[in-house]
From TrEMBL:
This is Uncharacterized protein. It comes from the Archaea. Residues 336-348 have a biased composition (Basic residues). Residues 320-348 are annotated as: Disordered. Pfam families: DUF5787.
Amino acid sequence: MTPSGGADPDSEFAFELSVCQWAERAWSPADDAAVLVARQFGTKHRRWDTIVLECDPDGLRERATFGADPFDSDLLHVLQNAPADWTYYRDALPDPGYPWRYVRESIHEAADRDAIETRKRGNRIEIRRVRPYPDWLRRVIAIENKPDLNASAARNLVPQLQRDIALSLADEVWVATAATDERVEPILLADLPAAAGVLTVDPEQATAEAVWQPRSLSVDEPGTRILDRPDDDTSAARFEYVDTGWKRERRLAIAERAYARGWRAYADTMRPDCRHFQLTADETGVYPYCAAKDCLPTAAECRGQCPSYEPEPPAWRSMEWPLDGGPGNAIQRVLERRRRRQRPGLSE
């Protein structure tokens, strides 16, 4: 990467940022859905590189009335079932399948966030909703980023895609790879599952082309979690079924985390307080830039143990204008403003 901006085609992290910026700008849902993009999300069994959420525009704006912080599955259990009128919480909420004391903890946390109201009648905790939790999520799109999809990478990717398709937690599964000058893109010759879509991405031009359309997965039906698939033909595979309720809960919990964090949170795991850390922009988007190494750094490189790390001088942080606390804080504010711009209804 050069100081003028642009993504380094040899960096998988830079490629991932390019895919996120392209999706945020150019993803075209079949209807009037709003689009939210996040990166590095999933469940304990699987992590996706990029997630595109297709959302109901009105529901997305209503979601903002609950604030920017995410709700985990325990809090969602309370929010989605909170009644309009005062009701004893055990009568209002379905049996969670775990001890009620944990439900009470979630109730108090939701009340602390002004998401529900509580009161005590004798020794009984009653709850009622402040406002209905909206049905804001429509579809979840999972994208696996492999800029250099050689034969070895393709072989390693196939089992992951097979697991995603069998579980059908996402509505669509895609593979994004760097475009080449070949007449037929090499990825189309790879033995990938036919249900997975294929995107070829040109990071320098910030464009992408769908060269293979995915199959819509059955998110409203039970899924299959593949636990073990041996390489030989004589050993049996191990799997388990997951019900639709679990899938619905996981999808919304993932969407909540994606709503809160988006894809620009890379600065949270880097060191923007280093005097060499900058943001650089061009027509393809905004990227982190290390002036000391003249490159787009990864989170593993941009840390306090980096030999080039130099804290900002205290004098920089005492400036009131235009940096107000130093360049590092200014960079984080810029990224936060851009993130909030994608979540209509949030106050600045």
